[in-house]
Amino acid sequence: DQLMSMTKKQQSREALLGIEAVKDLFLTNILPDRKLRRFHENDLGNSGVTDEHRIYWYFEDSIKEKYSNFIDVLNDGLQGTLLYFKRTCLKSVFNLLNGKPENESRLLQILVNKLGDPDHQVASKVVYLLQQILENHPMMKMPVVKSVEEVLYRPNIATKSQYYAIIFLNQIILDRSTDEVLAMRLIKIYFAIFETCVSNAGGGRGALKNKKGLKSTKKEQSQAMKTKLLSALLTGVNRAFPYSRATGETFTKLTDTLFRIVHTSTFNTSVQALMLLLQVMTAQDALSDRFYRALYAKILSEDVQTTSKHSMLLNVVYKSMKLDNDDSRVRAIGLRMLQLALKMDAPFAAGVLFMFS
């Protein structure tokens, strides 16, 4: 109780020492390797129950309550402004969640909520800690994903918070034999987020400068973050798709969303979407004229000259031509690429010639 009173002296040196001490005490001395029970949850009516049982149960009930109070202290500390204090509380939440099963759902919720922290150092640290949790406890993949999903669907969530959440999700290591359902859930999450941001994901290229060369506006920065988010979502779908069985209506909805991205987003994002469409449609043996029309339209775009995705563009064109059985269409795309090479710099022209070779 004295240690707990120290932890409540918010954002002070004494509180930090108290938090470390209470955390170590719970982890190494007090908490069992099972969830604690409240007094009334025990078999009180059993004829074999003695006063000694009741004393132990009362003690366990008291510990459970004090542990819950300690979690309150950590949660309050994470709402503060001092970065070093937040880091200590964050590390304690991780250690408790990683070390013992008691109150794990609440600790997980607290940890996941900090993906939305305005300080990017805290948010990126949470991504790392969640990865460590899954590395140590692979069976927690689905509960963790569900918690992150709840954060993603909150009203008025910042794009930056969505970005950190997606970065975590798209780095989850999947197992082909056990994670099919999880992979399908991840894909549905990605496309739900796609639906909300794809219409606003267009924007300029290059550095964030306006026409007068001044520093970027908040609107431009927001647009750049949405483009990064789209890129992270595409990466996520690309990684999860081989582990899922997206067929029928799910497959149709997935491809329709990707085609919308190709036609409405920045050139860099469009090329990534084309690469993903190629993989998805080839896996389902569903490569269509619609895909080749979208690809040809992108090759005609003036943005080809300024994009940073030349190698990816050449890659998707090369694979598409190899898979196409329509010789006239292959020749048309080839002719267009050669015409494009005449206007481009030497490395791109060499890339085109090497692709044909």
Tell me what you see in this structure.
This protein has 357 residues and is mainly alpha-helical. 69% of the residues lie in helices and 0% in strands. The protein contains 16 helices and no strands. It has helices spanning 2-7, 13-30, 51-78, 83-99, 104-113, 120-136, 141-152, 159-169, 180-197, 218-240, 248-264, 267-283, 289-300, 310-323, 327-343, 346-356. Helix 2 runs antiparallel to helix 3, helix 10 packs parallel to helix 12 (267-283) and helix 12 (267-283) packs parallel to helix 14. The model is unreliable at 201-214 (pLDDT under 50).
Topology of this protein?
Layout: H1 2-7, H2 13-30, H3 51-78, H4 83-99, H5 104-113, H6 120-136, H7 141-152, H8 159-169, H9 180-197, H10 218-240, H11 248-264, H12 267-283, H13 289-300, H14 310-323, H15 327-343, H16 346-356
Helix pairs in contact: 2-3, 2-4, 3-4, 4-5, 4-6, 5-7, 6-8, 7-8, 7-9, 8-10, 9-10, 10-12, 11-12, 12-13, 12-14, 13-15, 14-16, 15-16
Cα-atom radius of gyration: 27 Å
User: Counting H and I runs of at least 4 residues, what is the number of helices?
Assistant: 16
Structural class: mainly alpha
SSE string: HHHHHHHHHHHHHHHH
Helicity, in percent?
55-70%
The major beta sheet can be summarized as: none
